[in-house]
Every structure is written in C-alpha cells, then in structure tokens.
Design a protein that fits this description.
The chain is mainly α. The chain contains nine helices and no strands.
Length: about 200
C-alpha cells in the first residue's frame, strides 16, 4: 500500500514582502505619486503601524521597490554568466534577455525612467537610479571589452539608450513590434563594433 504525503503548505509572505510586492505592482502599474500609502497598506493586507515599522515612510518603500528591480536585472546577468563565460555569448544573452523583458515583464516602460520622471531632483531615489544605471552601463562596457569590440564605452552607451527607448516604445507601440526591432538594432550595434 502506498501513501502520498501532501506537500507542506507554503509559508505566507512576510508583511515586509507583501508591502514590497504591493508597492511594486501599484507603483509600476499606476505611478509612484498617484498611489497613496493607504492603498499599499490595503493591498498588502497589513496595518499602518506595520508599514511604518518596516519602512520609515513612502520613500523607503519606493527605494525597496527600485532595489528589487535592480536586483532582478542583476540576477538576470548572473544567470547569463552562469550559462557561459564567453563574452560574445553573454552579449547575445543580454540582447535576448532585454527583448524578453520588453515583451513579458516591463510592459509599461522602464521602472527607473518612470521613477526618475516622478523624482526630477536629487535625493535618495535619484541616487539609487544613478547607481543602477552606472552598474548597467559599466557591466555592458565590460562585456563589450571582453568581446573585443571597438569603443566598448560607446557600445555600452548605445545599448543603454536602445534599451531605454525600447522599453518606452514597447509601452507606446506594443511589445511585439518593438522587441524584435530592439534585438535587430542592438545586434547591429554589436556587429558594427566588430568591423
């Protein structure tokens, strides 16, 4: 006689995690300034006291949201790096990953560009955005240099610009139209730097 053991029930997300998940969905979908703390609290199913215990205020939650977005992109690069150490392969994986991101995940533009539009002046949010963009640009530059491309800083700057434009274009014109155009153009930049 065989018995089947039921899987252990999944542990519920912590209040902090529920707040971050609610903020991520609402901030990305509706804009940071248009979403109030009460709405995040309600969506997360926590109390006001819990919210302020976890985050000093809304800005702390905005920073946690953007840190999560940053970590997600860094994780994608780490997964690519675990698949291959060949810079040419990694550059292709980056192009494919950005195309997939445009189609599947960031369908309302770049979360960092969107946040920058809502935080036009200095401060912790803009500092986090600047750090993220510098990491992204320098990582692409290292890949371009590793692949032996001419002017790796220019290649990286072009790829960052193309990604920014493609994320906005995907939102405005449709992901199915823009993702392939991004991939073709990015591959053209890379091929042009080989000549």
């Amino acid at each position: 006689m065989s018995t089947t053991m039921d899987a252990a029930p999944a542990r519920p997300a912590s209040a902090r995690q529920r707040l971050i998940e609610a903020a991520t969905e609402l901030f990305y979908g509706e804009g940071i300034h248009s979403v109030g703390v009460d709405r995040i609290i309600e969506t997360a199913g926590v109390t006001r006291a819990t919210m302020y215990k976890q985050f000093a205020g809304k800005e702390g939650l905005v920073l946690a949201y953007l840190e999560g977005e940053d970590r997600g992109l860094r994780d994608l690069f780490a997964v690519a790096a675990s698949a291959s150490d060949d810079p040419d392969v990694l550059l292709e994986l980056v192009v494919e990953g950005i195309s997939a991101d445009i189609r599947d995940r960031h369908t309302r533009g770049c979360p960092f560009v969107n946040a920058a539009a809502e935080y036009p002046d200095g401060g912790p949010v803009r500092a986090l955005i600047a750090d993220h963009r510098e990491w992204f640009r320098s990582t692409l530059e290292q890949l371009a240099a590793g692949a032996g491309l001419r002017e790796p800083a220019e290649v990286a700057a072009s790829l960052v610009l193309l990604r920014d434009a493609a994320l906005v274009g995907g939102y405005l014109d449709g992901q199915d139209r823009v993702a392939p155009a991004f991939a073709r153009t990015a591959r053209g930049v890379i091929a042009g730097a080989r000549a």
